[in-house]
């Protein structure tokens, strides 16, 4: 298929700060250059250990003492190194769970509509229409706990539970953990598994090289009259490897232990530092074994973006992909009001939440998520109908991240309605 003059691939006009390779098949963060440093730090000590193994194998005979650094060590070193580099590439080169952004904020066809908010909010966000305001945040219930989801001014959508916006990559990421400068990528729903395997394999390599270097020094003591210091002086490369791995293991080892704790309690780094679930009830915690199984033994959700799909340069909605590659919002959207005349995207989803994979939607009741104000506004569409990817996020406790507790009371709701109604009457 020839590329038409007015059409380009989605990755070529992507609004985020990502870098794409192989025709949009590989996606990296804007600081992908740090991968070179990480690769050097991994390969360097492994090359040193392999050189020692080859030297010892060539210098020894069957009649001489048996070397610690032999062919089995050489093979194991190469395999561990390749595995570590593979996990690094899988972490840094895949979509971490980017939520497709909307083309524009909500529009309102009836400019005389009165905002009747049912969820308390002290901040309001301007929509496409000057007479329409959408709340900065909204309360939803996840597994019996109230969670606040926030409106993203950059992506023009309400972030799903556990979703947060990365200022470096300029994307909202599902189950956002953190942006790792060592891999040059956000860590989220779709690459957290490989990130943990990367840091745990790096920790294993540190212990592996550290132990073999000490064993090599100990085995060479006989040549130096049994003196450990003289043996260390004769095996300078082993000493360098010992120092390097000793320093490195405090970083990658500590990171591995920390993420093992986060994984067993079903937290992200972002949530741990911001919300401190150890002092509150964590709505996503299902028990240590179930939480760990969720990371390693659940099906990887597909990417919500089709970066190689064609888009028209005349379309201003670069950066999303829902039903079609792009899903610009059209018509009026009376968000939050619970009134008729709300415009839906295909599948009955409000335009504010376009950009998700809604091909296999299921009712929210199946995953225990309800909009808190459903009874107050019975005619309103479900703003948080969950696609399969969101089911994993909310129902199973995994998935995209910014949610904070918000105890919304009935009194606050009544006060909010009274305030908004008074403002509307004064405008009249």
Entry keywords:
alpha+beta; two-stranded antiparallel ribbon; 2 domains; 4-stranded antiparallel β-sheet
Largest sheet: 4 strands, antiparallel
Report the span from N to C terminus.
57 Å
What fraction of the residues are assigned to beta strands by DSSP? 5-15%
Total E-strand runs = 16
Instruction: Count the DSSP helices.
Output: 9
Average pLDDT for all residues: 73
- Secondary-structure-based class equals alpha+beta
Q: What order do the SSEs take from the amino end to the carboxyl end, as H and E?
A: EEEHHEEEEEEEEEHHHHHEEEEHH
Overall body shape? elongated
Total separate domains: 2
Unreliable residue runs: 108-122, 320-401, 403-413
The radius of gyration computed from the alpha-carbon positions, rounded to a whole number of angstroms, is: 27 Å
- What order do the strands of the largest sheet run in, or round the barrel if closed? 8-7-6-16
What share of residues is helical? 25-40%
Biased composition (Polar residues): 419-428
GO cellular component, one term: membrane
Transmembrane segments: 69-91, 194-217, 237-262
Main location: membrane
Structure description:
Belongs to the DHHC palmitoyltransferase family. This is S-acyltransferase. Its main location: membrane. This protein is an alpha+beta fold. The protein has two domains: 11-94 and 191-265; 124-181 and 321-427, no CATH class. The chain is built from nine helices and 16 strands. The strands form seven sheets. A four-stranded antiparallel β-sheet has the order 8-7-6-16, with no helix packed on it. Helix 1 (34-59) packs across helix 5, helix 2 (71-92) runs antiparallel to helix 3 (192-219) and helix 3 packs antiparallel against helix 5 (236-265). The longest helix is centred in the middle third of the chain and has 30 residues, at 236-265. The radius of gyration is 27 Å and the shape is elongated. The model is unreliable at 108-122, 320-401 and 403-413 (pLDDT under 50).
